[in-house]
Amino acid sequence: MTKARPLPTLTLETLLAQRVDGLVCGVDEAGRGPWAGPVTAAAVILSADGLPLGIDDSKALTAKRREALEGEIKARAVAWGVGFASVEEIAELNILHATGLAMCRAIEAMAVEPLAALVDGNYRFKLPCDVETVVGGDGLSLSIAAASILAKTARDRLMVEMDTLYPGYGFAGHKGYNAPVHQEALRTLGPSPIHRRSWAPIRALLDQ
């Protein structure tokens, strides 16, 4: 029998908050890998009081559960923010630096300014506060997990809207990620304005 994975906690946030003597946010992104659409980031400052139950890495949750938690996180967080970097910015900056831009925008969108951020992964982005990286952070830190939920739900909602603007690609289903229906749509329709045309898989499909 597989042992259940422990849920994220506020331990890392508490230790970092004590060190910097101020508020700490968790930061995570969604949409670095898709063939279409923006990269999205979220930043969240949580309080130990009134925490929503069930916060976890967004990938471990169903879409319905993410949507329910999104509202609870926004209602109970000390502060939260969401930021996007467009397909044009991804092409200009590359996906790594566009992700950092989205993270900066998420932090700047918060009503309260944090002194430090816990960021999922091992890359130390240049953000408007101190940064501490946490590999696997969305499974360890409640703030990062909450940010992963807000980033994922915001991006998914946007891609559903893009499905209406650019029908035929199936954006509402695959959210811009690689899928057989997405590949076939690209071959048939060509790229839409929100496709990442500089990406090698899309160039290869279009060259066929």
The radius of gyration is 18 Å
Provide the domain count: 1
Mean pLDDT: 94
User: What about the largest sheet?
Assistant: 5 strands, mixed
Number of helices: 8
Name the CATH superfamily classification.
Ribonuclease H-like superfamily/Ribonuclease H
Low-confidence stretches: none
CATH topology: Nucleotidyltransferase, domain 5
Spatial order of the strands forming the largest sheet: 3-2-1-4-5
Estimate the global geometry from the Cα principal axes.
globular
- Tell me the CATH architecture: 2-Layer Sandwich
The ordered string of helix (H) and strand (E) elements is HEEHEHHEEHHHH
Structure class? alpha/beta
Q: Provide the CATH top-level class.
A: Alpha Beta
Question: How large is the share of residues in beta strands?
Answer: 5-15%
Q: Gap between N and C termini, in Å?
A: 47 Å
* Helix-residue proportion: 40-55%
**Count of β-strands:** 5
Structure description:
The structure is a single chain. By secondary structure, the protein is an alpha/beta fold. It has one domain (11-166): Nucleotidyltransferase, domain 5 (2-Layer Sandwich), CATH 3.30.420.10. It is built from eight helices and five strands, in the order H-E-E-H-E-H-H-E-E-H-H-H-H. Strands 3-2-1-4-5 form a five-stranded mixed beta sheet. The mean pLDDT is 94.
Features:
208 residues, alpha/beta, Nucleotidyltransferase, domain 5, 5-stranded mixed β-sheet
Layout of helices and strands:
Layout: H1 11-20, E1 24-30, E2 39-45, H2 63-76, E3 79-85, H3 87-93, H4 95-108, E4 116-120, E5 130-134, H5 142-165, H6 171-174, H7 180-189, H8 200-207
